[in-house]
Amino acid sequence: MSRLQSMTGFARASRDHDAGGIAWELKSVNGRSLETRFRLPPGFERIEQGARQRLQKRFSRGNVQASLNFTQNGALRRPVVDEEFLKEVAELAGRLHEQFGAAPATADGLLGLRGVLDYADPVADEEVRASLDETILSTFDEALVSLENARRDEGAALERILLDQVARIETLTDQVENDSSRSPEAIRQRLSEQVARLMDATTGFDEARLHAEAAILAGKADIREEIDRLRAHIASARALIASGGPIGRKLDFLGQEFNRESNTLCSKSNATTVTAIGLELKAVVDQFREQVQNLE
């Protein structure tokens, strides 16, 4: 089982009770924090608090929708007739027939009127209700376990992708560090050619001052610090992934740092080969940041 969790997943759990059939459906998608929405049948609002507490113990991020479906046991549905109300509407129907010639009322028509016929609540008994609520919440626990497993399965796939991307970032960092354009000889040759072009094209420059300025520019173009920081971020990313748990926000911060260093590397580059590597590095970092958004 993966040490990481994705924020996406789906789960179902169902169980039968003497009062009826219970079925939960849970759906989880990405979210900046943990947000939960319950869809419960009328009369079952009482179980929301307990269900919400159970969910919060398992997850820290994601938008979770929890839907409960309850199918009442037909054998327990007992019809209840409001006889006083039935008598009143029957008398009213009779007067309408006599005075205005309205069609005579029928039994099924009268029983179909709202308020005349209802069904007794099979869980009105406190003991039955307590038993039902316990079964509903234990079924919810099963659904939570299934959802957690689904999120971990997705997390395992994300872990492999992220580690591959970190390895690619390390490879590109190695390529930048070992690029021939960064050798002292290449830097010296490039600066010498730039100074020579300036001296040939202009007059009145102090050659010593010009060389000093060139040295300053060479220092500004050095990418040693960016390389060192990239390596530190690579080590941090691997350590976080190995630690597991809800590390999505921390990896997102590291993704921002990766992006900052790759941007700086491209802006400071004075060689086409380094620029090309930097652009590829930016693309991999963007992919890394995109995948991190799916992590808890």
Automatic annotation (TrEMBL):
InterPro entries in the cross-refs: YicC-like_C, YicC-like_N, YicC/YloC-like
Cofactor: a divalent metal cation
Keyword Nuclease: yes
Endoribonuclease YicC-like C-terminal domain boundaries: 177-296
Residue ranges constituting the Endoribonuclease YicC-like N-terminal domain according to the UniProt record: 4-159
Pfam families from the UniProt entry: YicC-like_C (PF08340), YicC-like_N (PF03755)
GO molecular function: hydrolase activity
Documented EC number(s): 3.1.-.-
Coiled-coil zones: none
Superkingdom of the organism of origin: Bacteria
Keywords, in A-Z order: Endonuclease, Hydrolase, Nuclease
Family of this protein: Belongs to the YicC/YloC family.
Protein name: YicC/YloC family endoribonuclease
